[in-house]
Amino acid sequence: MDLGAPHGIRFRFEAGLLRAVLLDVHGKAPVDAGEELTAEAGARDLLVEETRDGHVRAVLRQRFDLPAPARWRLAVAAPATATADGVSFALPDAVTLLVSGSAPCEVEDGGVVVRLPAGRSDLDVTVISEPVFPVGDTVVVCRPDQVREAAVVVSCLPADRVTPVVALRPPDSSSHRHDRLLTSLLAATGVRRAVFLADPGDAGPDADVVPDLPERLHLPCEDPVGLTAKAWEVLRGGEPERTLDVAPDADFVAALFTALRTGAALRVDDGAPPVPFDEHDPDDGDEAVLVERTGGVDDLVAAVYAHHRGARLVITPEPDLAEVRAVVAEEQERVTAAAGAIGDAVKGIGFVEALWRYLSSGGHDPYAAVEAVVTAQVPAEAVDRVGDRRLTAFTTGLPYSFVHTGDVSWARKPIGHVVADPTLVVLTELHRAGVAREPGAFSVVVDAGAFREAPETTASLGHHTHPIVLSRQDASPRVLRDLVADLPVELVFFNCHDADDAIALGDDTLPDDDLPVTLRHRPIVFNNSCRSWTRLGREFVRAGARGYIGTLWTIPPNLAAGFARTVVRRLTAEETPAARAIVNTGTPGGIERSYLYVGTVNGRLDEWRDRSTTDAEAALTGCELLAAAARDRADPLAPVLHRELTALREVAETGEVTDSPSYADVLLAELELEDDDERAAVLVERVDAVLTGLDLPDDELEARWATRFELTGARFERRGEYGAALADFERCVGLGDACRDRADVLLRMARLLMREGRTDEAGQAARLAYDDHRARRDGPGRLESITVLADLGDPDPDTALRYAVEGHDLAEELGDRARQAAFALAECDRRRERGESAEAIEAGSRAVELFRALGDDRQELAALRRLGACHRDRGDLETAQHYAAVGLARAEQVGAAAEVASFHDDLGGVLTARGEHGPALGHYRHAVSKLVATGAWERGAELLPHLAVGAVRARDPEALWTAALSGGLICEVAPREVWASVLPLVVDSMKRAIETGPLELTQRGMTDFASAVTAGRREDMPFQVGLLADVVVVLLAWLMDRVDAHIRAFARELDRTSGGVLDLVGYVSVPYADRARDPGPGRSRTTSGGPR
């Protein structure tokens, strides 16, 4: 029996006792560990916990409950050391084993002994495995032309490890990606020292070459003869035991390879004999490395890699690619023309055969021209030296799979082409071979539909990868970027169209240069779009790809999909190296010959060394990875993750995993992403059933219940079922520390309680959230809490001001300018309430500037109004008028009608305070008219009294009629709570207008009011409009001196209906001629001295 994750460290038991620790997580040999236990009865629980942080750490936790003392022993064939924690064993290959527990651990010859007491005791076996990389601790940095110097220095470093060589070059469009990835790989593989053979400034002023290494040395190279002794002394100390003399003009690629093979240091000597390269170039083995002699230091990487692989090294002249490119371009035109001539009538394999026949018309090999021009660039001796071996070609861009002589064809030879950045390619391969594989794997397929048409189902051999197919609607650079960053993506396949210098992704593109994506998990990229295979291969390697499969010419998507299905199966399920996976595929018509692999011939996906993982277990692991990546329902990636999560969850349900905590977690993750209410209800039922049946410690189980209630509460809230939402949030918070986002849930509760008017409870929840955020030093969360508390308001002025000031300062610290401005405005209000005019003005000025910088016109206008009010409070009417005028101009500029009205009202208030009632009335009239014209009834009702009072002060009966008419229009359409306060003001304005204005104006005013407000049939009118119509009837009768008993009774009824506020009976009891200042001709006043 094995305990532990299949992708991690596993503990192997036989007959109930530990016998070995399996370390194939890093490709290391097992550790023999012989466990002995004298106990014959009692309980023993086993649990494995694993963590990863560069290294892999697994803990075998044993819990004993024994009736009598027992002796436990573990035999480990390694030196033991007693530590404060227990007993530690230092094992080969960077592996540490530690035994610790509640009872003392004692070192014993060949192992460790623990004397377990009767009753309960704990014992842990902790194994830590560090990745081991065959990379030296030094990188050599030099100019591209310093081949001789670099070869000498590399030969002075240990030959059993790969020494990276980096050339200083001027920056190009994506060199920053190269440098960033190189720096990361050097640090990850243990490189700690950089030796510069040239000034780093040679790469240009903006170059940032290996900036983070702890040790940087500069090694002058003016004396090539003495360089060996100097380099050895600096790098290793002392003198080399063995040297290989080489002439200054020797082939230093061959020389370095020979030196590494013989363990000698290169020494430049004018009289040196030829390098004995052929004597030491391996003749056995099945791998060859070919390098084109370009005269640059990149050639040395090929020699180092060939030595590392124990491969034959073949050195050839640099090819002339001009004619090769021309012939390839012609072949592209032929393939495109042939595909167009065949058309859409022929599908699938038939299309392949038809295309092949078309290209082969006349019985000729359709690729003969390409083969001829490529073969002409490769010497026959090189072809012979490579032989039948698989090949890594360090090349400037020659497609070596088209080498074809009379006796030899490389068409089906596994060939990896290293076309650029060789150190990056080699380090990526070595790093991935050394690190632990991820618990699961995904492939991303960007496809227009062809890949889905005929899916190829094959029985998995233990390597599980889940394909995520992105349609045109799903695909975008952002979605791709997020997928490869958040998920362990091992393969990316582009089966889509070209755009200009880019790969089409949905409605967007992925540019050829400086790819805006980081391939964190080092996938192999498979691209069917017809782009430059050398340039795009380089760009994807710089983005993080371990290899790139590209085409020489465009292949129709349906053909590419068929070929890709075969290649993907071979790469994943069969774990075939990529260069081998793209040949001998059985694809009819030689379609595979269009494809080339950029990378070494050994490039492959991570191996799944343990093959025990079932489909259901792999699916559940995939679900957990998808769930971890699904951070936000609103994220563009969320629909894709949700779709794949559901698909994998259904696969997981076919196995025996549905009673596990992980399955419950997957259901919760899916519930968080689900938008459909019916499907969500089904998920909730499953979650409840699984959680009810789980046998877990209380804290682990309650955490899952808390998540369940948080999710269902959020769902109720989105649906507007606020009572149910509040109930579930209260259940979540009621579980205490088990609630993962307690402070956030408390804030949501506070907002819901505010909605229900339960402000005291809302304040309590918000204060608890604030305290939680403050304790966790969660600045953004604390800002949210303060925002809610500020919205609630606090009856204590000091507390309200403290929230405003703290919110402003915290928002400024977090760079949240919008909230900083809002809190500055709140501080202005709070200080104004406290009578702190100067401080209020300072805060208000700050708010104006912040809102202006944000481009928030409406809030800037609100802040200007507050500033004006502050100056008015302190008696500075001139400044208050200035701010009102500035605000009015700004409001008119931005077309803010409501604010225009408000500033007119403010100007009216300032002018009234200055005693300028006439000009003030003009502003009041503008304010109300603007609001009524734009349908802002409630705000119009607020400002209407200012107009009415201003008209009285200015003794302007026409303005009173404007107030009455505006108020009547408001009453006609406004809700009851608005018109109930306006209607008495309308009647009062009419009465005052009649008293103070001439008869002609009164008649016109009554006519305008009746036609605008009370026209129509009485029975069709709303109550309040009918009431005004009745008032008009009474007033008209009074104006015509026709107040009889019937009219007086009608007026009495209206007074009763309105609660007496209209006082119509008292008003009409005095004749019009006696009330009006100007009753008109023929209307004499009475002479009695009775009261008026």
Automatic annotation (TrEMBL):
InterPro entries for the chain: TPR-like_helical_dom_sf
Record protein name field: CHAT domain-containing protein
